[in-house]
Automatic annotation (TrEMBL), chains A, B:
<keyword id="KW-0456">Lyase</keyword>
<dbReference type="InterPro" id="IPR000634">
    <property type="entry name" value="Ser/Thr_deHydtase_PyrdxlP-BS"/>
</dbReference>
<dbReference type="InterPro" id="IPR001926">
    <property type="entry name" value="TrpB-like_PALP"/>
</dbReference>
<feature type="domain" description="Tryptophan synthase beta chain-like PALP">
    <location>
        <begin position="16"/>
        <end position="308"/>
    </location>
</feature>
<dbReference type="GO" id="GO:0000287">
    <property type="term" value="F:magnesium ion binding"/>
</dbReference>
<keyword id="KW-0460">Magnesium</keyword>
<dbReference type="GO" id="GO:0005524">
    <property type="term" value="F:ATP binding"/>
</dbReference>
<dbReference type="InterPro" id="IPR036052">
    <property type="entry name" value="TrpB-like_PALP_sf"/>
</dbReference>
<keyword id="KW-0663">Pyridoxal phosphate</keyword>
<dbReference type="GO" id="GO:0030170">
    <property type="term" value="F:pyridoxal phosphate binding"/>
</dbReference>
<comment type="similarity">
    <text>Belongs to the serine/threonine dehydratase family.</text>
</comment>
<dbReference type="GO" id="GO:0030378">
    <property type="term" value="F:serine racemase activity"/>
</dbReference>
<protein>
    <submittedName>
        <fullName>Threonine dehydratase</fullName>
    </submittedName>
</protein>
<dbReference type="GO" id="GO:0070179">
    <property type="term" value="P:D-serine biosynthetic process"/>
</dbReference>
<dbReference type="Pfam" id="PF00291">
    <property type="entry name" value="PALP"/>
</dbReference>
<dbReference type="GO" id="GO:0003941">
    <property type="term" value="F:L-serine ammonia-lyase activity"/>
</dbReference>
<dbReference type="GO" id="GO:0018114">
    <property type="term" value="F:threonine racemase activity"/>
</dbReference>
Amino acid sequence: MTSIAMIEAAADRLRGHARRTPLLTSPFLDELAGRRVLVKAECLQHTGSFKFRGAWSAISALPPETRPRGVIAFSSGNHAQGVAMAAHLHGVPAVIVMPSDAPRIKIDNTRELGAEVVLYDRATESREEIGAALAEERGLTLIKPYDDPQVIAGQGTTGLEIAEQAAELGVAQAQVLVPCGGGGLTSGIALALEARAPGMRVRPVEPEGFDDTARSLASGRIQHNDRLIGSICDAIITPAPGQVTFPILKRLCGPGLVVSEDDALHSIAQAFARLKVVAEPGGAVALAAALFHADQIEGEAVIAVISGGNVDTPLYRKALERFAP
Amino acid sequence: MTSIAMIEAAADRLRGHARRTPLLTSPFLDELAGRRVLVKAECLQHTGSFKFRGAWSAISALPPETRPRGVIAFSSGNHAQGVAMAAHLHGVPAVIVMPSDAPRIKIDNTRELGAEVVLYDRATESREEIGAALAEERGLTLIKPYDDPQVIAGQGTTGLEIAEQAAELGVAQAQVLVPCGGGGLTSGIALALEARAPGMRVRPVEPEGFDDTARSLASGRIQHNDRLIGSICDAIITPAPGQVTFPILKRLCGPGLVVSEDDALHSIAQAFARLKVVAEPGGAVALAAALFHADQIEGEAVIAVISGGNVDTPLYRKALERFAP
């Protein structure tokens, strides 16, 4: 179970390795939202998403007898790149298991970050079997994407920074909107703010049709998504909140918010025009809620996390074409 | 004449007001450049460019008897927005004199930042006459875009941050590439680094066909551009290095570098894909030199400043279409 002490310890291990991302503001966004908007630009983290924090935290916490053997992860997205770079900087091997139909650029990027990519056929092979065989054979440790206390502790360092940076701007009371997939980032930030900024309340944000966390919070029990494909917000689509993350979300978070895909694209265009940062659709849902669903939010200030910026170029160009001011 | 003491004093006045922009890195850019690349993302500054620093420095240095009357500037670009926002946050009036054919979005943005925009007809009116009459009538102080010691001191705070942030990354020796128009940012950074990071050497970067500073440095005397329009790098096109800035550039800077417009667009696409920041063409020329003219640079590490991110959306989309990896 992740504690504030574990998050502080992760922050110590991350110091000088993860980037302290800026908390950005714009008078134009304040006007659009009708309140002060503070944006934690985690898209500026190494590998373009918060995932580097959790990966670094987990790898740096491995015991000295197992760490040198290396790590393994299943991912074709942000978690893959975070684990690949964190392992490379630790000087340990990383194996990333990806479907063979993953976009070529993601496979290439993960390799360039120093990982060994093992491809499998989604139709005929099981990634779990392949991964288990490799882990057994080489003594690799599995780094889970969210349901792991040390991963949650790493993501929680984002919350420590939010507490400090918001205080510098005079903000102690605010709802904190976080793009939510499996809940690693959301639960980590919630734990950090519970201890360091008790005037803040975290609210998970999801895309329409993939609102498992909002429904789970409303019902008090883990609910699943009907489907896992077909969203432009693919970076934050997971089957359901995690077994480890959900109890934290349930205890600490306010009701979930849900935005449309067009809201996410519109938010990408605002981040481009007003903040000069690149957001991916899934990473932009919290800013979308802050800007376009202000009636569902309370308080004089709102904090939105942009969780990643790894967006396909054609989709990004489309977002700007349709929504840039 | 701007001194390191003036830059330090400007940094004190800017603290808590200007943003300490991050120094970003990417292993992909290191590989492309063949050396370590550190990128000072000044596009993340308030109003999307470094100009906010110089404007804040100049306004905050005005004597208490003149400051409340307000300020005036001639600009349709980044300087206008920097002065407008800095004046607004000081609670003093700002008049920005702009040509009536300036893009509507720039006029609107400057007004939304709290300034009074006075339009003039480029064909029939003189902005100097209009400005002088307004300044006389209302007691406004002119904030020059670069040829002013307090403006240079404000831009020089970028250099103080570069020295500190590069030291944190273990870099003390490097060429520092800076997009150069009138030379305010370049001379300010050069003065700051002379005092705080003597192992670094500043080199101005300009677009082809508008290389007044490179030619001035080569000849030892101020040279002019043949023309002032027709560049996509419009944010850094000025008639010639300034009377105040050029002696500083001449004393402290290495030879100028020149890049093509395609280099600038390519650099924009790399900043998008690898750093997740939005660069404007003029703001991207230094990164372009670092990435695509590595043979003209020396040392194991290079530092490039992205000076602004206020780019027209269609041009940005074009840069991504042509050059995004």
